[in-house]
Amino acid sequence: MSVNSTLYWLRNERDRVIVRSNFEQYVFADRAAAALRAGFRLELVTIDDLAFVISGDSPEVWLKGRPLDPKSEYFHTKLLTWPQHAADQGRLLYAVQVLAESGFGCTTSVMTNLYNNHKFLTFLQPAMHGVDVLDTIQVFTRQFGFWFDAYPLDKIDFPVVVKPANWSSGFGVNKVSDLSELRQVLTLFSAAELDALIQRFVDYSQDYRIYCIDGVPMLATLRQSIYSTTKQSPNASVIVDVPAELKAIAEPIASRLGLPFVCLDLIVSDDAVYLSEMEVDGGVPYLLMNVDDRAMVLETERFAAYRRHFSAMGKLA
């Protein structure tokens, strides 16, 4: 395919050290190769590389000293929500909205970013449409203490999992056995200014990430927890075909979301299959990219889906 357009991967300026080191070396290189096959040059930029201009009735977006063309230049706009990004989330969401209203194609809207990154919102609509999700309570913890009265904690059935509500929640996960432990964990969350999700602990047997293109499940990774303390934690993965029973669950969710690319995490227990996460930027783990050819095929299809998305919006030249 001819390469006639550029997709800028927009990151936070605070993230520049990561952008220029491990991310660029291991993750970005494979994504750039896949994007090239789909007709995009993929380029890393930060929000501080941009300037927004209103000149008469024509908004302009400038990048590193030159104006951009919305018919050939686009943005990958997934919000980053690790703790070091917290101070930048508002300005990045603002930038995404300006880009969209200035006529630029964006892979992830402001609202989709909120649904993706705030885990209670992730579950809200699926639960209302009959999807099995884990019983979840969200609490705001900035001033948590023994005077906390937003929700009666003694109503909670233990054990539970407590994890950050709005960042990479495979990390910072705690299995809690009683009310005393819960208060200790929430006090730590308060000190770190992390809002918390409290979820029913499920001793599940399998954990899958389902990769969906244009609402259709295409591939999966079967994931195994690295740490033994809780099953909801960093993991190792192997690529597998999507099991038929999981495709039947994932496809209606992905179709309803209407996104060109999304990952759905499903956990399988003895009695049910639960939606545990969605991720709009969940690429195949980079360690698998050179192990299984299906990984690069999936990444290429992902960027091809972005092209179709922009074309449907009338934003391709």
UniProtKB/TrEMBL annotation:
UniProt keyword annotations, A-Z: ATP-binding, Nucleotide-binding
Single Gene Ontology MF annotation: ligase activity, forming carbon-nitrogen bonds
All copies of domain ATP-grasp, residue ranges: 123-311
Pfam families noted in UniProt: RimK
Gene Ontology cellular-component terms listed: cytoplasm
Keyword Chaperone applies: no
Name the record gives this protein: ATP-grasp domain-containing protein
Species name: Nesterenkonia alkaliphila
Taxonomic placement: Bacteria, Bacillati, Actinomycetota, Actinomycetes, Micrococcales
